[in-house]
Design brief:
One of its GO terms (molecular function) is glycerol kinase activity. Keywords: ATP-binding, Disulfide bond, Kinase, Nucleotide-binding, Rhamnose metabolism, Transferase. This is Rhamnulokinase. InterPro entries: ATPase_NBD, FGGY_C, FGGY_N, Rhamnulokinase. The chain has about 500 residues and is of the alpha/beta class. It has two domains: about 230 residues, Nucleotidyltransferase, domain 5 (2-Layer Sandwich); about 210 residues, ATPase, nucleotide binding domain (Nucleotidyltransferase, domain 5). Helix content is about 40%, strand content about 20%. It has a seven-stranded mixed beta sheet, with helices on both faces. It has a six-stranded mixed beta sheet with strand order 3-2-1-6-14-13, sandwiched between helices. Strand 19, helix 15 and strand 20 form a beta-alpha-beta unit. Helix 12 crosses helix 14 and helix 14 packs across helix 15. It is globular.
């Protein structure tokens, strides 16, 4: 049986990828995961050290497999791609990729930001880009690559979703939501900043302007898929930064905040205009572009990366790990016994996470977790505390009330984390959908093809997300006082 008019979402996360099919049925988007595949980075020795790369050809193979599987039994009418942000590939004059893209967790950007800030003051960069400082932002990755043979040879720079789209269609563009994470985009003009590009050329000798493709907005039909064995359908520019698609897939209305929780947690609110104040920069908030001219005002929080790394290390050491059982055991641990700053850069790199968490606790004067359950509880308590801090700051800086939190993505399955977030913030938490990113991706495609009717704006997309996901949503009400959370926050200060 063939399902009519199927849209395909390619959603790549930091640890896995998936191809998700969607079709409209009675005013809702019905989704099905067609194919999942791992995303495993590879370290390669270059110039005397190991450099961490994305295995982008393996990811592309996973995409092709998923699209072919879907096309065998569905009437595929469009395709959209979203991935994580900041990382890029370089193409030569023939359009060939100049090496696998470097992973944002690679150490090549260590200390680079300080050098860039001597030429482009942090205040000026924030005024133009509205971008949260992260040591791996694209601008710092490019500064780290200044003078390299690869960058000198390059004739085109494409962010990851745009690179994959180029391989599918032959058309090179920069989708706006992902481009806004580079540190090269003027957030108000929603286009490349001539001022920043000129300053980089003068200070670091990098003439990046000719490398950058035209910026397109979500909903643009980029080109037609032109790969043997794949359906010849339009590739639609969705919110190609996965968080941008995840926010479209939030089933909310009114004064809601969102937490898109996976390897990273993106914690923020949806605005019509950027917040570019010095207080906002000092709070390390980012103004990333969203769908329909919106701004995703948020802060990156380290997310479930800490838990994922601990579980991986325990498993590699030969220990039997049942995550559900481990979470149940952690519920019995004394609440807020140990909290750490999950956003400490000490937690950014892979490897040795349990030891680094124990060291951070000791240095902060916190009780050091001795068991796996204590370690997990420390991570989840600390995450909920980080969410509380981020949401309070976002509300204050944007002068926006928050009445409910929507926690979407893989973390919405973690009942303890959802409950702790409600307790920490004093706000109800609505968990789900798990596949919010794919849902937002699919809804933008359907609207681009005219299948949602006339006049469906961003609020309408949120309502469609609610209609599509209402059966999998769980509501967590805050309970108990916040005095213990106040005390834990004071300890962290």
């Amino acid at each position: 049986m063939t399902v009519n008019r199927t849209y395909l979402s390619v959603d790549l996360g930091a640890s896995s990828g998936r191809v998700v099919a969607g079709h409209l049925d009675d005013g809702r988007m019905v989704t099905e995961v067609i194919h999942r595949f791992d995303n495993v980075p590879v370290a390669v020795r270059e110039g005397g050290r190991e450099v961490l790369h994305w295995n982008v050809l393996r990811l592309y193979e996973g995409i092709l497999t998923g699209v072919r599987l879907a096309a065998r039994r569905r009437n595929v009418v469009s395709l959209g791609i979203d991935t994580w942000a900041v990382d890029y590939g370089l193409l030569d004059a023939d359009g060939a990729l100049l090496g696998n893209p470097v992973h944002y967790r690679d150490s090549r950007t260590d200390g680079v930001a300080a050098e860039v800030f001597t030429h482009l003051p942090a205040e000026m960069l924030y005024e133009r880009t509205g971008l949260q400082y992260q040591p791996f932002n694209t601008i710092f990755q490019l500064a780290a690559a200044a003078g390299s043979a690869q960058l000198a040879t390059a004739r085109r720079l494409l962010l990851l979703p745009d690179l994959l789209g180029y391989w599918l269609t032959g058309v090179a563009v920069a989708e706006a939501t992902n481009a806004s994470t580079t540190g090269l985009l003027d957030v108000a003009a929603r286009g490349w900043s001539a001022e920043i590009l000129l300053a980089l050329r003068g200070a670091l000798g990098m003439d990046l302007g000719p490398l950058l493709p035209p910026v397109v907005e979500p909903g643009t039909q980029i080109g037609t898929v032109d790969v043997a064995g794949l359906p010849e359908v339009p590739l639609v520019a969705v919110g190609s930064h996965d968080t941008a698609s995840a926010v479209v897939g939030v089933p909310g209305d009114g004064d809601f905040a969102y937490i898109s929780c996976g390897t990273w947690s993106l914690v923020g609110i949806e605005l019509a205009e950027p917040v570019l104040s010095e207080a906002s920069r000092d709070g390390n908030f980012t103004n990333e572009l969203g769908v329909d001219g919106s701004v995703r005002y948020l802060r990156n929080v380290m997310g479930l990366w800490l838990l994922q790394e601990c579980v991986r290390e325990w498993a590699e050491a030969g220990e039997e790990i049942d995550l559900a059982e481990l979470l149940a055991q952690s519920e019995e641990v004394t609440a807020l016994r140990c909290v750490v700053d999950v956003d400490d850069s000490a937690f950014l790199a892979p490897g040795g996470m349990p030891e680094r968490l124990a060291q951070a606790a000791a240095e902060a004067g916190e009780p050091v977790p001795r068991t796996r359950a204590e370690m997990v509880r420390a991570i989840l308590d600390s995450l909920a505390l980080a969410y509380r801090r981020a949401l309070r700051a976002a509300s204050d800086l944007a002068e926006r009330e928050i009445s409910v939190i929507h926690l979407v993505g893989g973390g919405s399955r973690n009942e303890l984390l959802c409950r702790l977030t409600a307790e920490a913030t004093g706000l109800p938490v609505i968990a789900g959908p798990v596949e919010s990113t794919a849902l937002g991706n699919l809804l933008v495609q359907a609207r681009s093809l005219g299948d949602l009717g006339e006049g469906v704006d961003l609020t309408g997309l949120h309502r469609l997300a609610l209609a599509s996901a209402h059966q999998e949503l769980t509501r967590y009400e805050p309970r108990g006082g916040r005095a213990d959370w106040d005390a834990a926050e004071a300890r962290l200060r």
